[in-house]
Amino acid sequence: KQEVTQIPAALSVPEGENLVLNCSFTDSAIYNLQWFRQDPGKGLTSLLLIQSSQREQTSGRLNASLDKSSGRSTLYIAASQPGDSATYLCAVSGFQKLVFGTGTRLLVSP
Amino acid sequence: GAVVSQHPSWVICKSGTSVKIECRSLDFQATTMFWYRQFPKQSLMLMATSNEGSKATYEQGVEKDKFLINHASLTLSTLTVTSAHPEDSSFYICSARLTGGSDEQYFGPGTRLTVT
Fold first, then answer.
1. Most-buried pick from A72, A88, B30, B39 (CB within 10 A)?
2. B74 or A65: whose pLDDT is higher?
3. Which of B90, B104, B111 is most worth mutating to test chain A (most A CB atoms within 10 A of its CB)?
4. Chain A residue numbers touching B95 (CB-CB < 8 A)
């Protein structure tokens, strides 16, 4: 059974810092890995999707890497802003199913 | 593109009543839709996979007679919570996968259910 863990569970940083969120998964047989953002009481916003054959994806200030063999992914956020405050979820795709991680609650203070 | 809507966005109902939540893919056809549940400060848990024109596949521990799923068309899936109880209060999120597309799922904005 796939298990997805995210570290840290919560993170508080001052504006402008670069930061790294970690995601680990137990079964390396995945199709892809996605990073999502969730604001309080809201749905999910897809940030980046990395196919299993890829090593990384970039979108603006976000960069996600994938090391499938070691079961790890990182989300790098450059020059963090207060608007980045949210919960970040990673999810791995197996056969037709997404398994979500436990999430990292990020607070960026001005 | 790839927009998924949910209705209602929030609902309050009395214990013992039934509530229906709709999930629509607005600009694409979705053979497969998924229903997730999220309790406060927890992650999303898959409840069931819904395929158009066939019975839904429920995850272990999810009561299929309590959470009725209908996927009658390529753009609409419904989740009916029957005889709702306070412990069913949760955030329900659906997602849809593009027919013939990649494995990517597109998520709806969620429905907050409160059972009093």
1. B30
2. A65
3. B104
4. 98
